[in-house]
Amino acid sequence: MHAIQYVLVTLAFFAALGVFIRFRRGGMRIRHLGMWWLLWSGVAVVALLPETTSLVASWLGVTRGADTALYFAMVLAFYLLFRTFGKIEDLDRQLTRVVRANALERLEHQLEEERKSTPS
User: Which of 43, 3, 52 is nearest to 19 (CA)?
Assistant: First the structure.
């Protein structure tokens, strides 16, 4: 086994362990746990059996297995980036709604206080 294989398998192990710990603490859904475990298991398999990328590459019509791994990594990175931007936009909209509601509530409270303090 080469040094890079040890590094990748160790990285995949600790990443999968971190994902499991986050799930146990309630910070992740079971679906995401499964997806991340699948990803890190794939990293470990490719590290231990590098010829698997060549098999997948020939099946897909790509010349080298390393190219196939890079293509998949790029597609996954762009997908995760797309989802992250979507989540950020959702959070921005939610935050805007909360701030608006809070501002309206404060305004109503101030108007109520002014009505009480002015003599009739």
Answer: 43
